[in-house]
Protein backbone atom coordinates (compact mmCIF):
# COMPACT_ATOMS: atom_id res chain seq x y z
CA UNK A 1 0.00 0.00 0.00
CA UNK A 2 1.37 3.36 -1.01
CA UNK A 3 2.04 5.73 1.87
CA UNK A 4 -0.08 8.86 1.54
CA UNK A 5 0.17 11.98 3.62
CA UNK A 6 -2.48 14.49 4.56
CA UNK A 7 -1.98 18.08 5.55
CA UNK A 8 -3.64 21.03 7.19
CA UNK A 9 -2.48 24.64 7.29
CA UNK A 10 0.76 23.91 9.10
CA UNK A 11 1.54 20.19 9.24
CA UNK A 12 1.85 17.17 6.98
CA UNK A 13 0.85 13.95 8.70
CA UNK A 14 -0.04 10.28 8.51
CA UNK A 15 -1.61 9.36 11.87
CA UNK A 16 -3.63 6.15 11.71
CA UNK A 17 -5.12 4.48 14.76
CA UNK A 18 -6.81 1.18 15.56
CA UNK A 19 -9.58 1.98 18.06
CA UNK A 20 -11.85 -0.46 19.93
CA UNK A 21 -14.61 0.25 22.45
CA UNK A 22 -17.50 -1.66 24.01
CA UNK A 23 -21.01 -1.06 25.29
CA UNK A 24 -21.41 -0.92 29.06
CA UNK A 25 -21.08 -4.39 30.64
CA UNK A 26 -20.06 -5.68 27.18
CA UNK A 27 -23.75 -6.24 26.43
CA UNK A 28 -24.58 -7.49 22.93
CA UNK A 29 -26.77 -4.51 22.00
CA UNK A 30 -25.23 -3.47 18.65
CA UNK A 31 -27.87 -5.46 16.74
CA UNK A 32 -31.26 -5.04 15.03
CA UNK A 33 -30.40 -1.87 13.11
CA UNK A 34 -28.34 -0.27 15.87
CA UNK A 35 -25.16 -1.36 14.05
CA UNK A 36 -26.18 0.24 10.75
CA UNK A 37 -27.21 3.50 12.41
CA UNK A 38 -23.98 3.51 14.43
CA UNK A 39 -21.94 3.23 11.22
CA UNK A 40 -23.77 6.27 9.80
CA UNK A 41 -23.20 8.33 12.95
CA UNK A 42 -19.51 7.47 13.18
CA UNK A 43 -19.00 8.34 9.51
CA UNK A 44 -20.77 11.70 10.01
CA UNK A 45 -18.60 12.57 13.01
CA UNK A 46 -15.42 11.59 11.15
CA UNK A 47 -16.40 13.73 8.15
CA UNK A 48 -17.32 16.67 10.37
CA UNK A 49 -13.85 16.69 11.94
CA UNK A 50 -11.88 16.01 8.73
CA UNK A 51 -10.97 12.48 9.81
CA UNK A 52 -11.09 9.40 7.62
CA UNK A 53 -12.51 6.03 8.62
CA UNK A 54 -10.38 3.61 6.63
CA UNK A 55 -12.12 0.49 7.96
CA UNK A 56 -14.98 -0.07 10.39
CA UNK A 57 -16.63 -3.18 11.82
CA UNK A 58 -19.46 -3.27 14.33
CA UNK A 59 -19.67 -6.48 16.33
CA UNK A 60 -22.56 -7.34 18.68
CA UNK A 61 -20.55 -6.21 21.69
CA UNK A 62 -17.75 -3.95 20.42
CA UNK A 63 -16.64 -1.52 17.72
CA UNK A 64 -13.42 -1.67 15.65
CA UNK A 65 -12.19 1.37 13.73
CA UNK A 66 -9.14 2.07 11.63
CA UNK A 67 -9.12 5.85 11.45
CA UNK A 68 -6.81 8.63 10.33
CA UNK A 69 -6.93 11.78 12.44
CA UNK A 70 -5.25 15.17 12.31
CA UNK A 71 -2.79 15.11 15.23
CA UNK A 72 -3.71 18.68 16.17
CA UNK A 73 -7.31 17.57 16.65
CA UNK A 74 -6.35 14.32 18.38
CA UNK A 75 -7.66 10.78 18.62
CA UNK A 76 -8.99 11.29 22.16
CA UNK A 77 -11.20 14.17 21.07
CA UNK A 78 -12.47 12.25 18.03
CA UNK A 79 -13.36 9.17 20.11
CA UNK A 80 -15.08 11.38 22.70
CA UNK A 81 -17.26 12.98 20.00
CA UNK A 82 -17.99 9.61 18.37
CA UNK A 83 -19.01 7.92 21.60
CA UNK A 84 -20.95 10.92 22.92
CA UNK A 85 -22.96 11.64 19.81
CA UNK A 86 -23.65 7.99 19.02
CA UNK A 87 -24.82 7.32 22.58
CA UNK A 88 -27.26 10.24 22.51
CA UNK A 89 -28.65 9.56 19.03
CA UNK A 90 -28.87 5.77 19.35
CA UNK A 91 -30.66 5.97 22.71
CA UNK A 92 -33.15 8.45 21.19
CA UNK A 93 -33.85 6.25 18.18
CA UNK A 94 -33.79 2.90 20.01
CA UNK A 95 -35.50 3.44 23.41
CA UNK A 96 -34.93 -0.20 24.40
CA UNK A 97 -31.24 0.67 24.84
CA UNK A 98 -32.18 2.90 27.80
CA UNK A 99 -33.82 0.03 29.63
CA UNK A 100 -30.84 -2.30 29.11
CA UNK A 101 -28.02 0.10 30.02
CA UNK A 102 -27.52 3.14 32.28
CA UNK A 103 -25.16 4.55 29.61
CA UNK A 104 -24.44 3.09 26.20
CA UNK A 105 -20.63 3.00 26.27
CA UNK A 106 -17.97 2.21 28.85
CA UNK A 107 -15.69 5.11 29.79
CA UNK A 108 -12.67 3.31 28.39
CA UNK A 109 -11.40 2.35 24.94
CA UNK A 110 -8.35 0.79 23.31
CA UNK A 111 -6.22 2.77 20.88
CA UNK A 112 -3.03 1.81 19.10
CA UNK A 113 -1.04 3.65 16.50
CA UNK A 114 -0.71 1.75 13.27
CA UNK A 115 2.88 2.17 12.30
CA UNK A 116 4.69 -1.03 13.18
CA UNK A 117 2.25 -3.39 11.48
CA UNK A 118 1.58 -2.99 7.78
CA UNK A 119 -1.65 -1.11 7.28
CA UNK A 120 -3.01 -3.88 5.06
CA UNK A 121 -2.58 -6.41 7.91
CA UNK A 122 -4.58 -4.27 10.36
CA UNK A 123 -7.22 -3.56 7.73
CA UNK A 124 -7.54 -7.28 6.96
CA UNK A 125 -7.79 -8.07 10.70
CA UNK A 126 -10.71 -5.64 11.09
CA UNK A 127 -12.43 -6.86 7.91
CA UNK A 128 -12.23 -10.47 9.14
CA UNK A 129 -13.62 -9.82 12.64
CA UNK A 130 -17.02 -11.36 11.89
CA UNK A 131 -15.43 -14.45 10.34
CA UNK A 132 -13.42 -15.38 13.46
TrEMBL record:
* Entry-linked Pfam families: Y1_Tnp
Give start-end of the signal peptide: none
The chain's coiled-coil residues are none
Gene Ontology molecular function: DNA binding; transposase activity
Record domain Transposase IS200-like: where? 12-129
Q: Please give a single GO biological process term from the UniProt record.
A: DNA transposition
Which SUPFAM superfamilies does the entry link to?
A: Transposase IS200-like (SSF143422)
This chain belongs to the protein called: IS200/IS605 family transposase
